[in-house]
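Pasting as-is:
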Amino acid sequence: MKYLFPILIVLFYFDSYAQCTLKGNVSAEDSNNPLEQVSVYFPQIEKGGVTGSNGAFVLSNLPLGTYKIVASFMGYQTFSSEITLTEGINTLNIILSPSAIEMEEVIVSTPFHKLQRENVMKVEQAKVETLRKMGAITLSDGITNIPGVESVSTGIGIGKPVIRGLSSNRVLVYSQNIRLENQQFGDEHGLGISASGLESVEVIKGPASLLYGSDALGGVLYLNPEQFANTNETEGSINLNYFTNTQGMDANAGFKTSGEKFKFLLRGSYASHTDYEGGNDIRVTNSRFNEFDIKTAMGYQFGIFKTELRYNLNSSDLGIPEEIGIQDSGRTPLTPYQEINNHIVSSKSDLFFNNSSLRLTLGYIFNSRKEFEEEEEETPSEDPSEMIPALDMQLSTFSYNLQYNLPGIGRWKTIAGIQGMNQKNENFGEEVLIPDAITNDIGLLATSHIHFEKSDIQLGLRFDNRSIKGEETGILGEEGYIAQLDRNFNSFNAALGYRIDLLKNFIGRINIASGFRAPNLAELTSNGIHEGTNRFEIGNPNLKNENNLQTDIALEYNSQHFEFFANGFYNSISDYIFIEPNGEFVDNNPVYNYIQQNATLYGGEIGFHFHPHPLDWLHVQSSFESVTGQLDNDDYLPLIPANKLSNTLRIEFNNSQEWIKKGYAFITLNTIFDQNKVATFETSTEGYNLLNAGFGASLNIFKQDMELVVTALNILNEDYISHLSRLKVDNISNIGRNINIGLSIPL
């Protein structure tokens, strides 16, 4: 009780601080008619609402100061402007211009709350709902629909993002506004995040160490959590999916409600899949998996103060396929399999002052990863619950991020901050893959945005320190021995970007940024058989930082009916860490050593989106992506995605009948080319074509709104093997024809 009184005093202070109200109307430029259900939103304050039938909106309990406001509605160009809120009632009338291209969203993964067209950095963004409508079983599979993004897969249940040829610890994943730490060094360690309860995905393609520190050398996959309901609104939904190939079931249900000050949401999901069937009509034994996920959040917002607390539990049982064997439809994983539990707790709090703000983000992640291997005495009837894990690793990570948005000076806006984490790894299993260790990070950063009438400049500087202390493990001279480790890694990084309106609707961007990555525990200390990869790995305790310098050039044209983009990059990495065989074997397992050499990656993406007038129902989209990676000795890097061409024809329709309101249909042909630029220990991969199609519609049946989606992937049941499949070495095919039937019911 002694803490209750001070808390009440603080809340009373925030409540009594000067607030204001914003009122206005939204209308259409082409007809001058009011627009209903337009989203009006303050991204920095994270507060908004929708217009009523007369186009009017009211947002109250807002802090004083200057903030960006965004208004978005399907079929119109997103409105973005800054408004200065003063005490009392403020007024703003908004006029939206027609546009056939999709609505723009505010980019959250970069600072200063810009729309994509306003952002200095080119950031790809996709709604999770859109990715799911394209038939993806998992989030890792869904993000491969974003140009420049692929996935290293182990069957269908395990996938790791690949951004322009870089993956694993070179790609940082953010969830709930904090860095995701779940032993991601392993090739067979997936994301461990369910798509349920996620709003959107943002991808920074290139070094983002300035914003995020170590491990953002190759890019960032930023997962935006589900937003709270608008003020004084309550929502709910049930989503059901069935997948024919895996006899898979995926269901989630959620509820959220918001008052003037307090907000709450809850969403739970469950997914279960049997072994998938390849294009050769053979099931891939032990590719089955089960996943349970729950996400909940509560928030408080009033005046100058805003805070939210989020929690996510993800529990998965993942089979690790190794060979073609038992052909059945079981759902309980066979050995080897992983049992993973991931707990994420995060809080984000903001204080708003007249022309500045302060944000504190805290996070705690507890990751438990157990791997069960086949025992000699094991029989098919053995109860998996009684088995002892060969690997039992627990990783606990506390992270913090304090950022101050300084008062603007003329055209300048600056953010300064301090970030860091404390991480502890512990082993409890029969085997030790990496030692018990403590990792500490601290980083100092400052970044500025300078706005001119037709151009913008963004620049920044950062310093990082990482210390890793690992305990001695095993007996000197024997297999599995790991020496004591005590290493420190430091790095200065900088970024400079320029964006300019070259012509009407034509934008140019150039960004030059450095990044770094400290070697991980596996690269520094490995000395034994890694069952998940079927190889004997030997680390190098003397490895140095990876450092890179990347140049990005992007051109973008957007008009009411046509969109075009072209992105190119050149990425030079010094002391690139990789693993290669040395020709020796231990217990029939090839020996691999971690070594370093300078490397270069280059390539890009190009594409267009055409919506011809007056064929308002037709969309034509196409994109091509390519990346090449080489070492200094001209050898190619491993696991580089093959060139890919994607072509989509999409139609949309509106129907005046009561039972069907609107719908869409699409057909896509993905052409993946031969991959002959392979590492010395890889084999070439033949190209293939995947034909996909689908349709969806918003229905009203028995006075209940719902949405039906049917998607068919690999319609021709192509028998193929992806170059990024870890099952390629065993000549195991990727998934064959798969039809997804989905039903979404708002409550």
